[in-house]
Amino acid sequence: MATNRFTDQMQAYGRWKADLNQAIGNYQQWLERNNMSNPEVDLRIYELLETMKSDRLNIAFVAEFARGKSELINAIFFSEYDRRLLPSEAGRTTMCPTELLYDNQADESYIRLLAIETRLEDISIQEHKKDPINWTTITLDTNSSEKMAEAFKEVMRTKRVPAAVAIRLGLLEAKDNEENAIVEIPMWRHAIISFPHPLLKDGLSILDTPGLNALGNEPELTINMLPNAQAVIFVLSADTGVTRSDMDMWTHYVNPLGADTRHSRIVVLNKVDTLWDELKGEEAIHNSIATQCNSAAKMLGIDPGNVFPVSAQKGLLAKIRTDHELLKKSNILALESILSTQILPQKQTLVRENIIAEIGRMVTESRDLIAARLTAVNKQLKELQGLSGKNEDVILHLMKKTREEQTIYHKSVESFQNNKKT
Ligand SMILES: Nc1nc2c(ncn2[C@@H]2O[C@H](COP(=O)(O)OP(=O)(O)OP(=O)(O)O)[C@@H](O)[C@H]2O)c(=O)[nH]1
Ligand SMILES: [Mg+2]
How does DSSP assign 251-278, residue by residue? Predict the structure, then answer.
């Protein structure tokens, strides 16, 4: 079934990477066995293997709040938990950027949370990631999807602080509020969730972002995380249409990311089920969805074919209930198919090119070294063969001489015997 296609492709990609690792390891051992290794080559191979190990397929979800980013993630990747894994509710839900990945260095599954107050320090999230001590860690019980979903609610946590604190943290503009007013701010600046889901183990990493100016508040997202994502999925919602804040986000943060062979941008029109008017016929519904896609494409300045109408909510429900008809209607599989046939192969090409650039150089060096060695050995062989010819001549000569000497000796022995007789 197509539902498994992305899972299958990811699995194949994981196996391909493992085989590649193995081949590079074998090459390194071969170099050692043949005395062709040196510390510089060793280091290059080690670094390459480390890069491969930590390399991930990053897919980021970006949109205004309540467009259905988290629900879409649940529907595409985590439906087998038979529940809504990431919290998805009306209004603002995800309060901090949340990365979902598998950390193979850790002994257990976890949620790591970075306090919002770290915004006051001059230390980037990237820097903080190197030191788990700065994070609040919650151990995840992966045996229970209910407990997991409960623990994931941590990304929704907020707290109430005087406006002055929010201003100091850079979450509020001074003019917006009276300094003594109480405002709600996110409890956490960033969350990392690691658990051994097969897709995550095969190298998928998902970034779920909060709406409502999260991108403006955390420049690292726009400067570092989004440009590093293989695909950025921008989510619109059919129940709101393209609003001014959607347009702001698109214009300032998503559109400038561009799209090329290294990065893709996918625009999704979610919640199309709100257009499934039971009093309308199939064709009328189809037309109203197409009209929304066209007008969204026009506003964003992209091709209408590049706007994917889906229903994340119905897609998740259909997968949980194994309702094929509803799943088809939700169009979630079309989106999965784009990930499998466009995004993943792009990533594989990038990894392959990188390996060829690195290892290809080393293999050429090895080949040149072997060719030089072969030439030297051939030369030596010729010399030896030449010498062995000479040896043969010398031996023949010696044998002839020895035989002559032997005859003379026998003759003298004979004459000695004869003389003795006489
Ligand atoms: N009808 C309908 N509702 C949806 C769909 N997808 C999501 N929703 C609802 O929309 C609301 C917001 O969904 P979320 O997944 O929390 O949206 P989000 O973009 O992650 O929002 P933030 O975390 O606040 O940035 C929830 O009540 C969802 O149930 C859909 O396909 N159809
Ligand atoms: Mg969310």
Answer: IIIIGGG--SSS-EEEEEEE-GGGG--T
**Cβ 246 under 6 angstroms from ligand 1:** no
Gyration radius of the chain over CA positions: 35
Query: Counting Cβ atoms within 10 Å, is residue 377 exposed (0-12), middle (13-18) or buried (19+)?
Result: exposed
Amino acid, single-letter form, for residue 162: P
Asked if residues 348 and 13 have their Cβ atoms less than 8 Å apart, the reply is: yes
> Which of 61, 21, 2, 16 shows the shortest CA–CA distance to 344?
16
Name residues whose C-beta falls within 8 Å of residue 159's C-beta, 6 or more positions apart in sequence.
184, 185, 187
Return the closest-CA partner of residue 207 out of 339, 307, 70: 70
β-pairing verdict for 135-139 and 110-115: antiparallel
Question: What is the best residue among 64, 70, 71 to mutate for testing ligand 1's pocket, by most ligand atoms within 8 Å of CB?
Answer: 71
Contact 197 CB / ligand 1 (< 6 Å): no
Q: Using CA positions, which residue lies closest to atom 30 of ligand 1?
A: 271
User: In 10 A of CB 218, how many CB atoms?
Assistant: 22
Q: What are the sequence ranges of the domains in the chain?
A: 56-330
The structure tokens listed for 268 are 């999704």
Which residue's C-alpha comes closest to atom 25 of ligand 1?
Answer: 65
Topology of 56-330 in CATH?
A: Rossmann fold (3.40.50)
Going by alpha carbons, the residue nearest to atom 11 of ligand 1 is 90
User: Structure pTM?
Assistant: 0.86
**Coil, strand, or helix at residue 242?**
coil
Length of the chain: 422
Give dist(CA 13, CA 11) in Å, integer: 5
Return the ligand number nearest the Cα of 275.
Answer: 1
Q: Is the CB of 65 under 6 A from ligand 1?
A: yes
Per-residue pLDDT reduced to its tens digit, 118-166: 999 889 999 999 988 889 999 999 999 999 999 999 999 999 998 888 8
Q: Give how far Cα 72 sits from Cα of 47, 284, 336, 371, Å.
A: 36, 25, 11, 56
Write out pLDDT tens, residues 88-127.
999 889 999 999 999 988 989 999 999 999 999 889 999 9
Q: What angle do CA 188, 92, 197 make, to 5 degrees?
A: 65
Return the residue matching tokens 């290294």. 262
